[in-house]
Amino acid sequence: MTDPSGFAAITSQLERLAIEVPSWAYGNSGTRFKVFGSAGTPRSVEEKIADAAVVNRLTGLAPSVALHIPWDLVDDYTALRSYAEDLGVALGTINSNTFQDDDYKLGALTHTDKVVRQKAIDHHFECIDVMHATGSRDLKVWLAEGSNYPGQADLRGRQDRLAESLATIYERIGEDQRLVLEYKFFEPAFYHTDVPDWGTSYAQVVALGERAMVCLDTGHHAPGTNIEFIVMQLLRLGRLGSFDFNSRFYADDDLIVGAADPFQLFRIMAEVIRGGGLDADSDVAFMLDQCHNIEDKIPGQIRSVLNVQEMTARALLIDRDALLVAQQDGDVLGAHEIYIDAFSTDVRPALAAWREERGLPASPMRAYAESGYQQEIEESRRGGTQLSWN
Amino acid sequence: MTDPSGFAAITSQLERLAIEVPSWAYGNSGTRFKVFGSAGTPRSVEEKIADAAVVNRLTGLAPSVALHIPWDLVDDYTALRSYAEDLGVALGTINSNTFQDDDYKLGALTHTDKVVRQKAIDHHFECIDVMHATGSRDLKVWLAEGSNYPGQADLRGRQDRLAESLATIYERIGEDQRLVLEYKFFEPAFYHTDVPDWGTSYAQVVALGERAMVCLDTGHHAPGTNIEFIVMQLLRLGRLGSFDFNSRFYADDDLIVGAADPFQLFRIMAEVIRGGGLDADSDVAFMLDQCHNIEDKIPGQIRSVLNVQEMTARALLIDRDALLVAQQDGDVLGAHEIYIDAFSTDVRPALAAWREERGLPASPMRAYAESGYQQEIEESRRGGTQLSWN
Amino acid sequence: MTDPSGFAAITSQLERLAIEVPSWAYGNSGTRFKVFGSAGTPRSVEEKIADAAVVNRLTGLAPSVALHIPWDLVDDYTALRSYAEDLGVALGTINSNTFQDDDYKLGALTHTDKVVRQKAIDHHFECIDVMHATGSRDLKVWLAEGSNYPGQADLRGRQDRLAESLATIYERIGEDQRLVLEYKFFEPAFYHTDVPDWGTSYAQVVALGERAMVCLDTGHHAPGTNIEFIVMQLLRLGRLGSFDFNSRFYADDDLIVGAADPFQLFRIMAEVIRGGGLDADSDVAFMLDQCHNIEDKIPGQIRSVLNVQEMTARALLIDRDALLVAQQDGDVLGAHEIYIDAFSTDVRPALAAWREERGLPASPMRAYAESGYQQEIEESRRGGTQLSWN
Amino acid sequence: MTDPSGFAAITSQLERLAIEVPSWAYGNSGTRFKVFGSAGTPRSVEEKIADAAVVNRLTGLAPSVALHIPWDLVDDYTALRSYAEDLGVALGTINSNTFQDDDYKLGALTHTDKVVRQKAIDHHFECIDVMHATGSRDLKVWLAEGSNYPGQADLRGRQDRLAESLATIYERIGEDQRLVLEYKFFEPAFYHTDVPDWGTSYAQVVALGERAMVCLDTGHHAPGTNIEFIVMQLLRLGRLGSFDFNSRFYADDDLIVGAADPFQLFRIMAEVIRGGGLDADSDVAFMLDQCHNIEDKIPGQIRSVLNVQEMTARALLIDRDALLVAQQDGDVLGAHEIYIDAFSTDVRPALAAWREERGLPASPMRAYAESGYQQEIEESRRGGTQLSWN
């Protein structure tokens, strides 16, 4: 096979790409209007991990699974870890949840009531305990906190309490562990959110210490936000901890990453590469955080990791030397064309060939369809309660 | 009491203001992350109507209750109507629901499968049957239909099927009934929505006939949309059927109307008045459609109808003659100031006095707090299943 | 050359693609902060047409040039027509301008003053006279009218006057001519715009008659608007007159079409094709409307028409039969993948080969760079006043 | 006069409110489509200051005037300072301008060419020289820098060069001077902006030192951004240097502050007060930055400072003790109502009376109209060149 696009030169970097999949993507999800079920949906954490392992087996891209506590509460995490490892995947980031208990209706780490704050802090301590058992590096904190009505809450007091609560949690994490603070523009709070933007997350984590980082969820920004700029900035400031990948047309739609705007995903990956986020010594974690409300979940996840891989490959193909020259020269159209040339390249054939070289199916999507796995789980997973976000 | 603002001159119009409340506002609601319950929440349609009747008793503003089928399915609507009338309220608009049955996962009136379409049409026929029993004038159709991924659906085919389905439903409504078609920018579908904007709703209802109208939900627009312009246009075109009032900072937040941007509500009511929507012969229906996710529901509804009343009063105070002169003269700041003067007027004392004249409490909010009703329902409504959106 | 993607099958349709270029794209443009000049910028209408002819010569895609009155006012349009034809291009759409005369500060076709309205109407009559001389089919009306402050203007009165003014203009156009009404979300007016959305443009042109159509400028929508849906709807309603192509990240940025979101351009062209807009009997006009504020103008235009061509080619490659089956079957991911497959195809080599077959340069961008034209105009066009938007 | 709203208690704080007006607001401004002139527009810096002095004389609110270099370049700033002081106003913030010289087409402080960067740095040195002559405290830096096309520029390289350039400038400012860095979402760059959000401005100024602060322009955010949250955060972090007040419906519309969303202005001022920004020892500077494109400039400025004053007064009326209790108690509606009560209060009569006590006209707008100043300048300022943004 000829290699007009220079694919051979990028495989060593491409090999480093690993995308953590979220356990909850294999359960049911939906909107406030309806959560539709689907045949074959897992009834246990183990079944979710089994499904995730299929994604990894077919793509070679998804070696770890993120857990969500308490959605993925089990009695014995050491056993769960072995179970996962036997299936070829590791347990990854631990996600806390302080938004589904009645006590958290008006806040958790920011609550005016010290008792509620302590309860939320204790929950994070439990998550850290889980991390020790699972060998997880990252504690990811997404806070659903905020208010719905102007005047309802004291924004400043909440920010100060947030700082205090986070500091208490941060003290507890291990030397090799990190606290990663996610930000989100809005939802479920509709007037103010306590960590609404990267600036707030950055200011909070800088105050904590060196092992506190920012999580960038690609769906958590105001309309029109230039996300790759934030990627650049957080890498520059040394605080890009992880990505939650998904895509959106409107709000936090949680669609398959790359489905809404593939060029945006390309630009994000281009900036990751430019800033060293895919270097051998990079600590940036790449994760999915999506909702497969209407599409099949396992192929939805396969499609997602393939999209990230495909756009990473295209971004790696950017002729960086030529680009830099054009940028230096102020050649607006020339620089843009070098950039777009990489994006316009169809890397699918090269990726398929490369997959086969590595013992993976050329088309993971087709391989899944032909594997019979879906039919098997639809058959075997009858009865029980399908897992969802609770 | 002196009347510097000219309040006396507007009471005859203000008296015409009636706001329909939605039965579902009295049940629990939430986001996809969590539906919080609250003490005293109704367990039956009757309890919802009882709560709505309290809102009307204290404000004199909410003489009817909208129902949602099947959420408000009962065996005997004639009995329900009597029950409501005994409490001083009428049954109002009937809202159909074609988004919570598994068959509707990929569409209802637009579905590619004729069987599913017919099922959705039949549901509307049932709603029309209910309307005959309840004496309702309006069948309100909000369609949750759309798609999440580009390519998933044939936009054009769906639009054509929508036209056909609506025509079949329209044929069935009575001579004195109306079909009101709501539009919504997005959610629960995240790529395309089949009735996303007023233009689509308008084009569809014009094709149906004279008793087909548009419903404008104040939370269903793209960011930055000038809603009062649409109010003006629909009144001009003779197709403004009804309002679903609520407010928002981001998406379809469904907050208390007027809470996010009181000046916007003022502008909307000013345009309603300008276009004859509050005239004696107007058929425009004013309704609430909100979610009280974290605040108490009954006072949330009281606050809502009061907000509409307050902004309507301010809008009625606009010195229309002076405004027209300034507008004709191109006096930009002068016209703006006349408009703003009305908005800046504190009508609360005059409204309180006017309420008392009519045998209503000066402060409905305080009256509710002091009525003991909330304590009573929290006490009496123990056990059973609190109603929510299903 | 093998043809794995089925390119051969689409060339007959691709051949029909013709994109009108705007004369003003060859002059200087900028923002309110600064208009930067550039060497070689035309000083006369003729020089603009000469530049446009180069774009057509190198791409075979731009056979006509839109004019803007009064920016392109000349004494003798018959002579201008001959001049253009000698260069291989036709004169196309005539664009009116009622936003740069001091009288139009507060409106033109909607102005409260009848004298100003008549002046604006008369300007359109002059444009129609020009059309007769140039042989142009379309009179394109973009109205910069609106208001900046709530209360400043009577929205309804303006809408009624707009209808009246347009009717007067419409009466004057010839049997084979069309009036095309553009809409725009905002700018230069910042509170309300008199034709802000497709619904308003549609309602206005329907009232005029069958030769009145809507112009869709791809940069004139609220954030998040699904533009291809509007394309579908206007084609369905028989009122899609023309496109003004450009792209944007924020507002009406007027960037090179396809530069900001190539997938969106693909979706738009897919819907054009689906709705018959590229059929042999289609009357849809494809135009550019862009600002080359910082990049070179002629290659900017070449890049633009190539982008439209490239995305049209990809959209033509959609396997429509397979797509329809997947859509009918409710195969969400399957349908999406068929759609995305076409988008992911690199059509550049096939397009280059096809161009050469037709006697065009394989790479129009490179051909322009090597042609020496830029150097020539930079040399020869010294002195005089570079043309801009006035 | 009775004082039901507690106005007397807030006047000591209200007295501290001072709003700097921008010299350029008195010149002509417009959009990229047209800059309309108006009778009486200044032809010199002195005439701009004279107009600004009128605003201060009538309102007592605008004791200083911000200058823009080079728009306000004069030979002798000591003389200008005396001229201004004789008219009762001081010279305030100095604004640099690195966006209108041809060299800055592709950047200034971030430019790839060291020569251009040095030129831009030197311009800031000149501004600092002016500051020494005028006695100005603040050097305000708004950078129009960015790129229009993905790939055009190296985002990271530009950010690093920005840091370096700013550090060089920061070193030069005096002990009692501050560097204030403004951020802006977009425009005039349409793909990326080098300082697009408060997070970037914050990260840059923290790296500079303690006298580097953030400037918050109320029109420079993405749609839906909660601006008062940023106000809270910057005050909490000790980095809120100044405000550029204006209002908007869409983008950076630069409308009269408070005209588009008075409740938002109220919320911003409430957060300023909450965070100590109006305390006696506060260094926060309040400025206008607006465009009076179609309205008269001087009354436009009077209206603006009055709007800020009015909303500040309303915000000062918030019953903070009661609010805090309701917030602590989680009384959602109760807290919201306390907040809204203050907003709903009509403070205009109390403000008018207070003005008269202080020897100011009760209605500055009417006083201006009756002063004959407008007629006088329209008469006297004939000939010459009206000033604009260049």
UniProtKB/TrEMBL annotation, chains A, B, C, D:
One of its GO terms (molecular function) is metal ion binding. InterPro entries: L-rhamnose_isomerase, Rhamnose_iso-rel, Xyl_isomerase-like_sf. Keywords: Isomerase, Manganese, Metal-binding. SUPFAM superfamilies: Xylose isomerase-like. One of its GO terms (biological process) is rhamnose catabolic process. This is L-rhamnose isomerase / sugar isomerase. It comes from Nocardioides szechwanensis.
